[in-house]
Amino acid sequence: MKVRVGIAGASGFSGGELLRILLSHHDVEVSALYSHSEPGASIADVHPQFLGQCDLKFSPVPREESGWSNLDLLFLCLPHGVSSSLVPTIPPRVKVIDLAGDFRLKDPRDYLAYYGDSPPDRDLQAKFIYGLVEWERRRLVEASYVASPGCFATATILGLAPLVASNLIEERVIVDAKTGSTGSGIKPTKATLHASRVHSLVAYKAFNHQHVPEIKQALSSMGRGKELDLIFQTHSTPLVRGIYATIYTRLRADIPYSDIESLFQSSYRDSPFVRFRGKTLPDVSWCRGTNFVDLGLALSGRNLIIFSALDNLVKGAAGQAVQAMNVMFGFNESQGLCYGGGMP
Amino acid sequence: MKVRVGIAGASGFSGGELLRILLSHHDVEVSALYSHSEPGASIADVHPQFLGQCDLKFSPVPREESGWSNLDLLFLCLPHGVSSSLVPTIPPRVKVIDLAGDFRLKDPRDYLAYYGDSPPDRDLQAKFIYGLVEWERRRLVEASYVASPGCFATATILGLAPLVASNLIEERVIVDAKTGSTGSGIKPTKATLHASRVHSLVAYKAFNHQHVPEIKQALSSMGRGKELDLIFQTHSTPLVRGIYATIYTRLRADIPYSDIESLFQSSYRDSPFVRFRGKTLPDVSWCRGTNFVDLGLALSGRNLIIFSALDNLVKGAAGQAVQAMNVMFGFNESQGLCYGGGMP
Amino acid sequence: MKVRVGIAGASGFSGGELLRILLSHHDVEVSALYSHSEPGASIADVHPQFLGQCDLKFSPVPREESGWSNLDLLFLCLPHGVSSSLVPTIPPRVKVIDLAGDFRLKDPRDYLAYYGDSPPDRDLQAKFIYGLVEWERRRLVEASYVASPGCFATATILGLAPLVASNLIEERVIVDAKTGSTGSGIKPTKATLHASRVHSLVAYKAFNHQHVPEIKQALSSMGRGKELDLIFQTHSTPLVRGIYATIYTRLRADIPYSDIESLFQSSYRDSPFVRFRGKTLPDVSWCRGTNFVDLGLALSGRNLIIFSALDNLVKGAAGQAVQAMNVMFGFNESQGLCYGGGMP
Amino acid sequence: MKVRVGIAGASGFSGGELLRILLSHHDVEVSALYSHSEPGASIADVHPQFLGQCDLKFSPVPREESGWSNLDLLFLCLPHGVSSSLVPTIPPRVKVIDLAGDFRLKDPRDYLAYYGDSPPDRDLQAKFIYGLVEWERRRLVEASYVASPGCFATATILGLAPLVASNLIEERVIVDAKTGSTGSGIKPTKATLHASRVHSLVAYKAFNHQHVPEIKQALSSMGRGKELDLIFQTHSTPLVRGIYATIYTRLRADIPYSDIESLFQSSYRDSPFVRFRGKTLPDVSWCRGTNFVDLGLALSGRNLIIFSALDNLVKGAAGQAVQAMNVMFGFNESQGLCYGGGMP
Predict the structure, then answer these.
(1) What is the tens place of the pLDDT at every residue in D90-140?
(2) Fewer CB in a 10 Å sphere around the end CB: N or C, chain D?
């Protein structure tokens, strides 16, 4: 019997990508699409690419428990801050995977500082497992509530985790991260206009990106509480899809390159979506449209640069959420995610 | 003494391009920038590329005659329909060049049919000269009011005019026209989002584009009243700038290619911005950032295709308006417009 | 038991796309990849996006029958002119689908005129069935040799076929066709440089594109021998993937729009990959990455414009070839092709 | 009387951009264009955008002194390594501005290590002044030989120089630099194909980019011999034009932001092409097509990030070379360079 899933916020970029993936997933039936902005619209009005593949109409977001009752699982692809008001209305038998930032942070002060808003209820937050499958597989098996990681956070944490877990690098880490235009969402603004963006490369949110506490929290837990001194700077580029994180670290001691390579290989041996490429520096286009994250390394003396690339809508959002769903429901971790990217 | 010019609607794409051109024009002083949407803003807030080149602030659009009194010339870069309400408030000593469609059409029924709005006052419209310098040079010398041509219309008319004026082609003409994202203006919409537009090519406004009556009116006057049976279809492409018109015609008789080539050469001998390239099919990138329109031809039997390419923000808008200004004020026609395009 | 397939010319764009599709096809095993330019290379050297999904190495193209013996089916993704020298070396038990133009044209004079080269052996050509599944399904069931259609030809024929088969339009048809940069192939040239192409829109091959005889041949057979007077003009645009054909026709008589709509609907009722959208003008981005062709219409008087959009690497090449394979081997026609496109 | 200039290597991107700038420069006459790859070609064959603006033909590169004799100044836009073999054939009365890396490095070991080739003659190198006008104005007034800076080096040095000259930052500096596709030159490769590049973001040349010694040499001289511990990592992005350098530094002491702002303002008070934007993070599109470099800052504790943006073909190559020429010949420093960029 198929898992009946709903998507709230299905009219946006990650909602559409999630729908694309789930429509080909053999163990899932997409039962409902909810949208605040497009209630009543047909799928072909909002996502014309799905004509002939999906006949659902968008429903308004239910305001009561009964509205969700025919679902086994609900994905939330809503703007930050909306999920936390919605989750209390969802009956306990419906599992939840939230793609927004609402339930990722344990410390309410971090939420307030970086999202500028009052944090969600603490007991509710405590029920959420961080959905980074590569490092939380065991806890996700039993999870009912999942806070799916942010796109920049995924790229950064997967690149640093083996080194942090083995305590090989100094605290000071600089991450220079680049993203594309889908990262700004579907709502049109002057900055995401085609005419503006084709020629634009610009840094934004210096020293206060909301993924900073998410990255520090995850790595601190892997590093047994040791805190990173993290400088994290994001940039908009003319890519459509993609995250590219260039991570500058220093080793605590002289370590041969081959040892670092072995560490990465063993860390991700059982992770089908992490492709470690050694000294081949990854190109974000190799991951486009796929759930892969590609990692590469460059070492000179004790200076170690890690390069991490992924598709923000797949591994950074919808694909990763399906990967977590697969673990939660006992499916093969890569079920529905085993396709290669189109090039070019 | 320099001509004192103002720009109303200077916060948009053509307003910005006009400012760029006028700042380097030796006989002009930009005295005022007006904006409905950005009154009080500095130039660097709205067009950060001009920091260090222009210190003007945006003024609100004046509501009374006295507000315009220190100008010799006002350019209107406003949405269609706004110019016609503004022009009556402008004192007669201020000349006007309107870049919108308001005053282009002589027949008020055309305006109503294609702009869906009540046409401007008929006497006022009658004062406007159509600003296609290549074919209206003599009348523009004495003009006080100019209706600057539309971008698609410019490409199409310049490509067809020599043939129509010599009565060489059959009435039925098909124009397949392509444009880029700046053609949709600076106001962000879902269709002009970078993420949507990079991969998009789509036809729009079948059989009812507002440049149809403009093209027919201009060519009818050149063809001594003979009406074209014009099919005109526009397309959005991932270009940022550019118009490319592919014009399908049939010759009335067998004419050697060399005669047609001679006709184009002689028609544009004194037009510095028309570059006739013969059998070399023009690339829109050769015109980018310039006031040139490039024309090419292909002939097979009596089937003649004309290819016409230009930059919609320059020859299709701001550059052409400056060219008309040069003629109105007795400057060299190419004053301030003599730069080549950057490639790539 | 799975069909064992090989791909010759797997290092190019359509070869790569074919590999992507076949790796997810449940009834197929990709047994061998052949390349003239990259013999010995691993898949990750040439198509790094497939790391972790395919371990094959590229083999040199065999020169003798025995080299192909373990295959059931061979796809040829080679430059025009190469297939015809290769096919005679392939043993009869290996079926062949050729994606090049070598075996599409029945009349050797057409081949000579448009490909500028001596045509393939006439008896060999006669064995090939034209792989346009929507119109050749029955013959393809028994085919051993398939000449897969060209990308422009597919878009044009599918848009015109219902009208031609019902004899509803006048002979004179004008097709204004647009393509993207993958249409020029993987071999780098100055014209396909990123820096050149981003800003470029240019017509090419006036009156002599090699798809002209292919389109006329197919439509003549559907129209019981009546020949079109076809003007066909291609353009390069800054798309990466896509064909957009704007097809200008005239009806022979006054026909209500609803009748034409019905005709298209009934013509493609059993064709899962043709999406008829009526008056909604299709956007090529809705087909990107999929095997769909989207059709739309606009009618004014007797002037009928048909809009046809597809992905040149999928429906215009690799996907269509797999669709033909499915029919040849008795699989479901859409097996392995049922995924939606990623947007954006 | 105008300065007679020649351009060797005028068929490439920076050669074309240089021609564009010089054709509008009132004190210069472009006398000759030389090309190894296109001798005999007309300008319209190689740079079709200049049709109607320049009638020169490309000459072969002269092999003897007499070939250069009618010039006052020669610009060299040749691949690295070619200039050094050419300069000895140029008569002393012809001044030289070299845009390649040949004569930038004082230490021949650096040249060997980073360019992988034997360095130019030491005495010849010693005659060259580094053409970074903002910091070498006085020496350039009397220069006959100029080594024009690299594009990445220009962005990095201008961003760091005020801090290094005042000894305010720690030695360890990390520069994460991004460029566009024109940075790879006009020679087509698989990596610069439009189809590859649109979706690509990739790091390259880890720890061994040839601009590293150039940056260290320049900053060491400004910092009175103190050496930076520089990590410098370059990335390719889908931009066409542009350099964006994100420069991570640490202050030696607690310094208020306003002091740093004052330092930048005073350092560049007399430099018309450096636009210091304070806390506004620059967008590379604001500099596109112009000779400006835009600088911005972000400070948190002692962590200071400097953001530096420019157009690689103008301030990073051709424009900067003309700026140096202006100083060498006693013209106004911004002569011929005073235009704003087109947006978008």
Answers:
(1) 999 999 999 999 999 999 999 999 999 999 999 999 999 999 999 999 999
(2) N
Chain B residue closest to D11 (CA)? B343
Show residues of chain A in contact with C192, CB under 8 Å.
Answer: none
Distance from CA of C148 to the nearest CA of B (A): 25
Q: β-strands B28-34, A145-147: how paired?
A: unpaired
What is the distance in angstroms between the Cα of C165 and the nearest Cα belonging to chain A?
Answer: 25
The DSSP element (H or E) to which D203 belongs, if any, is strand D202-204
Work out whether the CA dihedral A270, A272, A274, A277 comes out positive or negative: positive
B interface residues, C as partner, C-beta within 8 Å = 174, 176, 178, 193, 195-196, 198-204, 206-207, 231, 233, 235, 237-242, 244, 246, 248, 281-285, 288, 296, 298, 300, 303, 305, 307, 309, 344
The residues of D annotated as belonging to the active site are 151
Residue D343 has pLDDT above 80, yes or no: no
Rounded to an integer, the average pLDDT of A299-308 is 98
**B203/C307 touch (CB, cutoff 8 Å), yes or no:** yes
Nearest to C237 among B203, B206, B237 (CB): B237
| Phi and psi, residue C32, nearest 5° | -155, 145
How far apart are alpha carbons A286 and D42 in whole angstroms? 41
Three-state secondary structure call for residue C44 = helix
Separation CA D89–CA A136 (nearest Å): 68
pLDDT band at D4 (very low <50, low <70, confident <90, very high): very high
The answer to ipTM > 0.90 is yes
Q: What is the pLDDT of residue A99?
A: 98
Specify whether C151 is catalytic: yes
Handedness of CA A168, A171, A177, A183 (dihedral sign): positive
**What pLDDT sits at residue C341?**
72
The reported pLDDT for the residue numbered D7 is 97
Count how many pairs of residues, chain C against chain D, have C-beta atoms within 8 Å: 54
Q: What is the pLDDT of residues C17-66, one digit of tens each?
A: 999 999 999 999 999 999 998 899 998 899 999 998 999 999 999 988 88
Please state the pTM of the whole predicted model. Answer: 0.97
Token pair 């006080």 in the structure block, residue: B144
Q: Which chain A residues have any C-beta within 8 angstroms of a chain D C-beta? A: 174, 176, 178, 193, 195-196, 198-204, 206-207, 231, 233, 235, 237-242, 244, 246, 248, 281-285, 288, 296, 298, 300, 303, 305, 307, 309, 344
B178 to chain C: nearest residue by CA? C201
Q: Among candidates B313, B332, B286, which has minimal Cα distance to B20? A: B313
Name chain B contacts of D313, Cβ cutoff 8 Å.
342
**pLDDT score, position B64:** 87
Tell me: pLDDT of D324 over 80.
yes
CA distance C236 to chain B (A): 9
Tell me if D344 and A195 make a contact (CB, 8 A cut-off): yes
Whole-angstrom CA distances from D259 to D168, D248, D271, D299 are 11, 18, 19, 12
**For C258-297, b where at least 16 C-beta lie within 10 A, e where not — what string?**
eebeebbeebbeebbbbbbbeebbbbbbbbbbbbbbbbbb
Catalytic residue among A54, A77, A151, A287: A151
Q: Which of A199, A204, A242 lies closest to D239 in CB terms?
A: A199
Whole-angstrom CA distances from D47 to B243, C177, D32, D321, D341 are 20, 27, 15, 20, 21
Write the pLDDT tens digit of every residue in B307-316: 999 999 999 9
Q: Are B56 and B40 in contact (CB under 8 A)?
A: no
Sequence-separated (6 or more) residues with CB below 8 Å from residue D46: D10, D11, D16, D35, D38, D58
* Distance in angstroms (rounded) separating the CA atoms of residues B288 and C332: 49
Inspect the interface and report whether the beta carbons of C240 and D194 lie closer than 8 Å. yes
